[in-house]
Design goal:
Pfam families: ATP-gua_Ptrans (PF00217)
Shape: globular
CATH superfamily of the largest domain: Glutamine synthetase/guanido kinase, catalytic domain
Oligomer: single chain
CATH class of the largest domain: Alpha Beta
GO molecular function: ATP binding; creatine kinase activity; protein arginine kinase activity
CATH architecture of the largest domain: 2-Layer Sandwich
Enzyme class: transferase
Strand content: 15-25%
Largest sheet: 8 strands, antiparallel
Family: Belongs to the ATP:guanido phosphotransferase family.
Helix content: 40-55%
Order of helices and strands: HEHHEHHEEEHEEEHHEEHHHHH
EC number: 2.7.14.1
CATH topology of the largest domain: Creatine Kinase, Chain A, domain 2
Number of strands: 10
């Protein structure tokens, strides 16, 4: 597999399949933080120590059991351009922290990009598994299987009382972050979203934007994840998130039905206006693009638009990001040039050029 395979295509192979409840849940993710005994955390490690960690992790890639899951490629961050790193961040394959601050940082990617294992990020290992739709338990099963393979070859830092040791105290214990990316336009339009999200935080969960902590919830996309890793088992964490996400799905469906019953023409007008602007605009910033794409996706899910696939909108969410726009253009673009290129790209995807 070539690097271009990972940075040249906006839509990862795993995203092309439709998972359960995919009209509301875009994706499900498990991330597991692990560290190796006897080595300082990456932020404190010397160049030699971080290289030794990378060498030991790389050896596990030759394990036959791992090969039965997928073919994997090791990508060293030092071999990537800043633009290539940005694209991997935009595809959620690496974190901004790994892209900007790592020493001997690397990422191990599966063939369909559903599995990414960051090396020498905030922790020595961060195993991430992504599934389309509402498949948080399936993502956990896969991540747990991969974690077991690595643990059988590496000596993890573990304490009998505290559990797995991590560089950030909020990850100590299970080391698990489970999350679902949800598209919740109806809850936003019916002004229920703040009440719902406030209730979520009362049960040990947190809400973030599209790119995790500190990011804005653009395009009505919200990432719901566990906040507690210590004092609960892995299954308790997964079950709690699964149950709360199920309730949010039901609230979003009820809100969509209410919009259809009470405001059908207003919603149809909103959807068609956004579709028209996306189809013919000459310039568009990323915030407006995300909102307009959210409107159109809602129209698709409500049966108001039949000629577009939701996968096109998933693809455009990545294709219209600054890094990917410049990657496809082959040159560094100013903010205005990106807005022009973004509008052009959307027009092309919608069959208007």
């Amino acid at each position: 597999m070539t690097l271009h395979r990972f940075t040249g295509d906006a839509l990862s192979e795993w995203m092309k399949g439709d998972g359960p409840e995919s009209d509301i849940v875009i994706s499900s993710r498990i991330r597991i933080a692990r560290n190796m005994k006897g080595y300082p955390y990456p932020m404190l490690a010397t160049n030699q120590q971080s290289q030794e960690v990378l060498d030991q992790v790389s050896e596990v890639l030759n394990n036959e059991e791992l090969e039965t899951i997928s073919r994997f490629s090791l990508v060293k961050l030092s071999e990537l351009s800043e633009l290539e790193k940005m694209v991997l961040v935009e595809k959620h394959l690496i974190s901004p922290n790994l892209a900007n601050e790592s020493r001997n940082g690397a990422v191990i990617l599966s063939e369909n990009e559903s599995i990414s294992i960051m090396v020498n990020e905030e922790d020595h290992l961060r195993i991430q598994c992504l599934c389309p739709g509402f498949q948080i338990k399936e993502a956990w099963d896969l991540a747990n299987q991969i974690d077991d393979i690595f643990e059988s070859h590496l000596d993890y830092g573990y304490d009998e009382k505290r559990g797995y040791l991590t560089s950030c105290p909020t990850n100590v214990g299970t080391g698990i972050r489970a999350s679902v990316m949800m598209h919740l336009p109806a809850l936003v339009l019916t002004q229920q979203i703040n009440r719902i999200l406030s209730a979520v935080t009362q049960v040990g969960l947190t809400v973030r934007g599209l790119y995790g902590e500190g990011s804005e919830a653009l395009g009505n996309l919200f990432q719901i994840s566990n906040q507690i890793t210590l004092g609960q088992s892995e299954d308790e964490i997964i079950d709690n998130l699964h149950g709360v996400a199920r309730q949010i799905i039901e609230h979003e469906r009820a809100a969509r039905q209410k919009l259809l019953q009470d405001s059908r023409m207003r919603i149809l007008d909103r959807v068609n206006r956004s579709l028209g602007i996306l189809s013919f605009a000459a310039i568009m910033d990323s915030k407006e693009a995300a909102q307009r794409l959210s409107d159109v996706r809602l129209g698709i899910d409500l049966g108001m638009i039949g000629e577009l696939s939701a996968n096109v909108l998933n693809e455009l969410l990545v294709m219209t990001q600054p890094g990917f726009l410049q990657q496809t253009s082959g040159v560094k673009l100013s903010a205005e040039d990106r807005d022009i290129r973004r509008a052009q790209l959307i027009r092309e995807r919608f069959g208007r050029s």
